[in-house]
Design a protein that fits this description.
This protein has 436 residues and is of the alpha+beta class. The chain is 17% helix and 37% strand. The chain is built from three helices and 28 strands. A hairpin with a 3-residue loop joins strand 23 and strand 24.
Length: 436
Amino acid sequence: MSCSLDDPTLERHFKGHRDSVMSVHFNCNMKQIATGSLDSCVMVWNLKPQMRAYRFVGHKDAVMSVQFSPSGHLLASASRDKTVRLWVPSVKGESTVFRAHTGTVRSVHFSSDGQSLVTASDDKTIKVWTVHRQKFLFSLSQHINWVRCAKFSPDGRLIVSASDDKTVKIWDKNSRECIYSFCEHGGYVNYADFHPSGTCIAAGSTDNTVKVWDIRTNKLLQHYQVHNAVVNSLSFHPSGNYLITASSDSTLKILDLVEGRLLYTLHGHQGPAMCVAFSTAGDFFASGGSDEQVLVWRTNFDEADYSEVLKSQRKASSIEACSSNTHNNSLPQSAVRETTDLPQSQSSGREHSQEQKNYMSGDSTAACIPDPELQHIPAAVARTLEHIVGQLDVLTQTVCILEQRLTLTENKLKECVDNQREINAQLLSRTSSASP
């Protein structure tokens, strides 16, 4: 099988922020991109031509992180004002807000089932919340400096965190304990995330490096020193074969994780590149920078690299037939690109251990096995079911917002009643003392 790897191409750019763009994320419906900026605004950009962007104003300070929920019907944002907001990403831009930490909230991330949120803060803690009612569940607090990033694993059982204490920690969500600390970075760790298989993590640091570890053996697998400045952000391609990084040296780098080498250096931002993210299918990626711009790129990788991802997403979007407790320990073999498929002109002169080249292979376990009977549902019925599920999700979130407003009204009413009782008691006391 021949494999062609075309250069990524810049498709669109968006301008509207008034300060550095700190975070970017694609909606799973591929119709919207969300960004957060030091200008205190959240922007939702519509990818359809002639559709205007939405500017959401509510945070009182810089927005450090944004992420769409897995369903795409909610958008979370984290801010320097110590709060997290949940937005309905429509023209109305309604939101609920909760005070999440006692310091800047650097990161917010949904679990894959959309039921939980994890936040990371300058108060040195990681906190886990329920999405419904934004109920606080528990804190993780073994870092000794600011926590820059926290992410759930694909199966939701683990959490990875990156900190200015120069460590990356893996936490067990159920036991709420730190199960391992990686201490190889020589600088502050700005960003960390799980490989789509859940078996590995990658982290970027102020020491200008990117490191990849296997969390099953806790071994360092790959070390990349390809940037000339701080690594601010990174994102795995959904196939797991590639990693893209954003750096203060103004470049984006695409790394081939199977070969363990640099594939592309992309120049587009005039100033530090602050954030980067692949789309859900991996056919696009977006980046944001200190130049206030959001750039959207077409990946142009060989379609074979993510055809399986696209197929699985089509099945998942027809009907959600997965158990939330299913655990996938390895990358499917069909998603690993063989080294012989690479053009000879792009082969690397550096040698890598067999462990590094094959670290993503192993016994594959299907993460989602749809019911065979459901695969025969007509497309029209599947679309109708998908629409109904989406509307129910929106309705649930609307009820959640109304419940919060009702609770706020009840609290204010109770406060008014208590104040009135106090006034009545004072008046009664004065009347009693004034009577002979």
